[in-house]
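Support reply, case 0932

Customer input (verbatim):
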Amino acid sequence: MSAKIPAFSDIGKSTKDLLYGGGNTGAFQFNNVLNLSSTTADGVEFTATSTQKGDSLETIVKAAYGSKNYKFASSILPDGKALLSITAKNLAPNLTAVLSGTLPDEQSGKVVVDYSVPHLTLKTTVGLTQNPKVVLAATTGQKGVVAGAEVSYDTNKGNVTTWNAGIGYNAADFQASVHLTEAGDALKASFAHNIDAYQSYGAEVYKNAHSEDVSFLLGYSKRLRDGALTKAKVQNNGNVTLLYEAELKPKTKIGISGQFDATNPNTKPKVGFAFDLKN
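Our regenerated output:
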């Protein structure tokens, strides 16, 4: 059976994970974050995330329950609104749909439909309004090469508001991609290389057609022998970002991020702590 073609947003994913992180890939963040999660005997998953932003503390509480083909999730946001979503898998062969919205915002509803067959992945997002915005994305590929495009269409204005296109190559130890973004006004190229089972490095270059400036990121990560993750990232503006993430004990993880301006020692550095506890 052919491998599933990545979604358009996943073209260049290895570089994104290295340079920006997320999930198990080590995310840089400069707010203090406490994340608590647990699962009941009936399979209900509860998550509470508190984030310190300046002098305020914002908390999101989430509950989710799922079966083989369905998942229900609800979140209470810091402003008191409720975010609800229903995910249904296998509505038809290879078809997944997600219905979501924020209460009481009547204009927030949307439907996301994913469809995947060998050599083709499609994703459609439609707002549940009288004149919805529609986002269509498609990718295709073969033998490690993936190409795709994404188009946003405003039915109220009757025109395409923006589009993006990209092509990527995936090998056993490296990944490279090139994207045209902002309706063709910007070019972004990136790569990531796995040096060995513990180390990887990568880079991203961005150029806007309306500016002479070229921005870039260089990143490096290393998984230590004890399982801890270290990361370093350098930007063209002189910012240096560091991360250390370790599992103190099973299901308990701590992360420390820091950023300083190497070109201006007088700039106050940024520091963030993250504590993740699962039960």
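We compared this against your earlier run and they match. Two observations from our side: Residues 8-278 form a domain with the Porin fold (CATH 2.40.160.10). The helical segments are 13-19. Please reopen the case if you see a mismatch on your end.
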